[in-house]
Amino acid sequence: MDETFINSYRSPQLSKNWLLNLNPLNKINIYIALGLITLFFQYWQVNVVITLVFILLAVAAGSFKKFIGPFLKLGLVIGPFFFIVRAIFWPGENMIFNYGIINITQEGIDLGIQYATIMLVVCGILVLCTVTIKAEDLTYSLEKIGVPHNVSFMILSSLQLIIDLKDKTKVIMDSQRSRGIETEGNVFVRIKAFVPVLSPLFLGAISGAEEKTIAMDARAFSSANPNTHLRFLRPTPALEKILVILVDILILGLIILGVIL
After folding, report:
1. How many C-beta neighbours within 10 Å does residue 90 have?
2. 129 contacts 27 by C-beta, under 8 angstroms
3. Scanning 151, 177, 223, 225, which has the fewest C-beta atoms within 10 Å of its C-beta?
4. What is the per-residue pLDDT across 151-177, written as a single tens digit (0 to 9) for each?
5. 47-60 burial by CB neighbour count: b if 16+ within 10 A, else e?
6. For the whole model, what pTM was predicted?
């Protein structure tokens, strides 16, 4: 066996990007700290700036293409939904349009914009975590701070299950298409084609969970002995710790400023 391949498992898995090399918990810390600003500054402009910061972080991580697609899909669905709900049904003094239960007020529009941009920030956090943090790195980091290995395995399995269901759905839809079943078209055609997929999809998920349980038992997953890992992370450098602390202090200062204002 190639000695280089063997040695690759003896050293921490690093990339050439500084942001991707940060500890997963530190990255989550930074993302959530930035997101907390939206709770204390009631200005939609602030939410837009934070969203742009997330986009810049995705660019810095070299993951802009992976980030922007899911971000736009989530943001263009969730953001307008919250805007419409708040803009149409929120009471206010400055009435713009009224018909039945529909009350469009200036206050509702302002609140709708605020909530829509907050949802953009939330979507940015979720997508940025997905594209810059590997699930196995996250669970390894959790184990290093004392989280039981069975809990970290449940987190990893849950994240992996989403990916597996997506892949299985694609395979089943391709099989349906090869049989001449129409799967493309308007919304009703897609729903009609998707409903028969649910049964084999969930049966396959249940079967896969059972097979995974048997495989883990065969590998002494429940053993009390310390676990070994094929993949591990570098020790957190002092400079990275200082960076996280400075970011937290800066965000805390901005939050205090927001409360005062």
Report:
1. 17
2. yes
3. 225
4. 777 777 766 766 677 777 777 777 777
5. beebbebbbebbee
6. 0.76
